[in-house]
Specification:
The structure is a single chain. This protein is mainly α and 139 residues long. The chain has a domain of 87 residues. It is 91% helix and 0% strand. It has 3 helices and no strands. The chain is rod-shaped and about 150 Å long.
Length: 139
Amino acid sequence: MGKHDAKQPKLHFEQKRSTRLGELEQGPQAAEGRDLTAEDHGEDLRTLMLEMRSSLRNIDTKLDNLTSQLDSVKAQVSTHETRLDTLEARQSECHEFQVETRDQLLHMDKLLGIIHAKNEDLEARSRRNNLQGFRRLPP
């Protein structure tokens, strides 16, 4: 059934209903020429039931589409959560490595300062020894 088939009974029902409502609004004189039988009411009820079933099918189809889209979004969120957890773990490892590297760099800087001080002391000692050697030489 196409979209036009589902709408056809609705239009038919709406036309009958509007005609009958108009007759009721005009009073009993307008409805005198027309006999409302149980068959007419039964047809109206069948038409209404068909319309309701068609509407329910449309709603079910739309809900199925929304459910599948929601499942897709859930899968994407799950993937992103996994990736985020991985990134957080890597960031934590990088932070730990950064702290260790900083500590090692500070330790090396301290050792370099000690080496510079020892080098300066050795150079000064060597100069003093050289000066003492020149003082002992005869002129």
